[in-house]
Every structure is written in structure tokens, then in C-alpha cells.
Amino acid sequence: MRRKFIAGNWKMNHGPAATSEFFNKFTAELKEAGDVLEAAAKGTEEIALFVPAVSLLTAVNAAKGTPVIIGAENMHWEKSGAFTGETSGPMITEIGATHVLIGHSERRHIFRETDEELNKKVHAAIECGLVAVLCVGETLEEREGGKAFNVIKKQFAEGLKGIDGDTLARKMIIAYEPVWAIGTGKTASDADAEEVCGFIRRLAKESFCENTADELIILYGGSVKADNTRGIISQPDIDGVLVGGASLKADSFMQIIKNAL
Ligand code: PGA
After folding, report:
1. Rounded to whole angstroms, how far apart are CA atoms 168 and 256?
2. What is d(CA 55, CA 115) in angstroms, rounded to the nearest whole number?
3. Which of 95, 171, 177, 186 has the CA that lies 20 to 30 A from 211?
4. Minimum-distance ligand 1 atom for the alpha carbon of 243
5. Do the Cβ atoms of 36 and 26 come closer than 8 Å?
């Protein structure tokens, strides 16, 4: 049985003060949520928050003593050097964060990150011991042009170049986030989300092996809210959700975590 993975992505929201405020409420709610704590202790449900680089330290400290995993939203592939404004993997691990998002659609589309660069980031993340959450997803134009599966296949193959099946299954997570569903209020239907997540699992089987495909954690992201979590998470190939807007408030994120149990 694969574990569930429920993650929030704060994007460019919540500096250190707002992060502390979030955790004050969130940890209080966690203490009351016996079923969530039990699932986390058994390892059947993982809870993660991907936060801005400047809020990582506050989040790591605030999450101590709770099962909440803290991750960065992006990283550079070099360990150090003349890359003004960038954050490296070793800097992220030094703070105590354990996970990193790679290739979120906003990184791909707004910041023009290429599959080749994302592949370098995946390798760098794994090399320094971070779990890399590689995001893939098609635009509306690509979907309407019937190219969704080809886009996903290319992002999967190029993002994972040089990665072996064991590494993919144990040190990585794949998040399917259709660009047209992010921040738009348009969630993919449960069936549409399952169709692509099932396709990703088949890609993992064809490119690696059945074990890798069986173990791989695949998330859906794009306008996930408390009221659509149950339908999405009950799909056979969807193991969790990556939540943007609805993870910014402790109560709505907690409701999603509970609905995913
Ligand atoms: P959303 O964002 O839930 O606000 O649509 C999801 C994401 O971009 O990870």
C-alpha cells in the first residue's frame, strides 16, 4: 500500500511572521486531530508544506515535534557560486528542510525553466539528500490540441534522464498539475486527473519496471479544496494532492488533510 502525501505549496505567500501565525493555528488543530496524528505515526499519510525560501527556517522550527515535512519551492542545481538570488540544495538541507518542488508550472512558464535545467535540479536535489517532487502538466492549448499525453511523456522522460527506478520510487514524487487547473478554480474531473496519473504510472512501468510503478507516489494538483479532495484521492493512481490557495489557511488545509484520510 502506497502512503498518502498531502502537500501545500504556498508560492510567494507567507513570510516568516505569517508562517509563525499559520503554525500557531495549525499545530493547535493537529493536536486535536487524533486520526491525522495516528495516520502520520503509522506512515500511511504524510503532510508537507512547501514554503518560500525566507520562511524555511521559521517553518522547520515551528514544525518540530509534529509530523509535518517542510520543503522548498525551488532550488538551483549548483551547490554554491555566482548565482545571485538563487538558493542551493545544501542551503536548504542545512536549514533542515527535506523536500523540494522541481518544475512547478509557474517555474516552467513564468521563469522559462527547461526540461534540461529541471533534470539538473532533480539530480542535484537527490545528490544532497532532498526528496524531489517533479511537477508535470499540460497547458489548456496543449490539452485542446490533443497533445496532453505527449507533453507529459516528454516532461517525464527528460526530467528523469539518468535517474534509476529505485531512486524515482524512493526519493522522488511526481505531481501532475494541469496548468489550466492551477489557481483558476477549474479542477480536472476525478476521471481526467486519474487518466493522466494512470498514464504516468504506466510510463514508470515502461521506462523502469512494475515495482517502480507500484511504489511511485503520484499527486494531483490544481484547484484542490476540501470539498473535492475525497473524489480525487479515491482514484486508484492518485496518492495525494498538491494544494496551492487552499493551503494558505490552517483550517482549510487541515480539512483537506482530514478528508484525504
Ligand atoms: P491551486 O495551486 O491549488 O491554487 O490551484 C496548485 C499549485 O500550483 O500547486
Report:
1. 26
2. 27
3. 177
4. 3
5. no
Q: How many angstroms separate the alpha carbon of residue 187 from the centre of ligand 1?
A: 10
pLDDT in tens, 85-112: 999 999 999 999 999 999 999 999 999 9
Q: Taking the CA atoms of the chain, what radius of gyration do you get in angstroms?
A: 17
The catalytic residue positions are 104, 177
Q: Which of 72, 182, 170 is closest to 121 using CA atoms?
A: 72
> Which is nearest to 135 in space by CA: 85, 71, 91, 83?
71
Distance, CA of 229 to CA of 80 (rounded, Å): 39
DSSP conformational letter for 73 = S
Threshold 0.85, pTM exceeds: yes
CA 72 to chain CA centroid, Å, is 10
Q: For all residues of the chain together, what is the average pLDDT?
A: 97
Q: Which residue has the cell 484521492?
A: 233
Atom 6 (ligand 1) nearest CA? 244
Domains of the chain and any CATH numbers: 4-259 (3.20.20.70)
Calpha distance 153→159 (Å, rounded): 10
- CA 101 from chain centre, in angstroms, equals 6
Alpha carbon nearest to ligand 1 atom 3, residue: 244
Q: 43: left (phi > 0), else alpha (psi -120 to 50), else beta?
A: left
